[in-house]
Amino acid sequence: MPSPEPSISPPPAVAALVTLAALAVGLTLPDVDLRLGLGHRSALTHSLLPALLLLAWRRRAAACGIAAGIGVHLAADCFPRRMTGYATVKLPLLGALPPLESYAWLALNAAAALLLAAWWARRLHAPVARALVGLAALAAALRYLWHDPGGWPVLALAGAVALAVARRRGRWAGRARCAGGARSTRSRTP
After folding, report:
1. Are 45 and 33 in contact (CB under 8 A)?
2. What is the pLDDT of residue 28?
3. What is the pLDDT of residue 172?
């Protein structure tokens, strides 16, 4: 039985550039459904499917960037003015999902896309390249969300989560310093 084709990894700098270029494409890729006549918010483009297709074709760096871009786009799409008609997700041959299911579709696919992008970024990029790609991705996401009407709630939620994580890490770091370093000045009387 023949073995599958070996995966050839691009040089690290090329992989980082491919990831960033794919991120830029992924930010607007879901709305290609309008040009393809699929109806706005087609489940085919407003999902993890494009990134999964790239993974199937062994284009990991591109899949990482596309997933990150789609994740940011879908996160913003979770906050339309009203989840009716144009804003609901459309399944091919089945029609529009109800509002609650549309919210769930967008939120779950956004989370899955962002988790997939983070997972592949850790595997594809060295720590320094990962940090640079991460900063560039963060800048692109902030720019996109800043100009999208649905982006403001995403920015507020992301800021609140980042603040909570930073506060929690600060608390744990403080406990670790106390536990590992200086001894307590209180007496230990039973």
Report:
1. yes
2. 92
3. 58
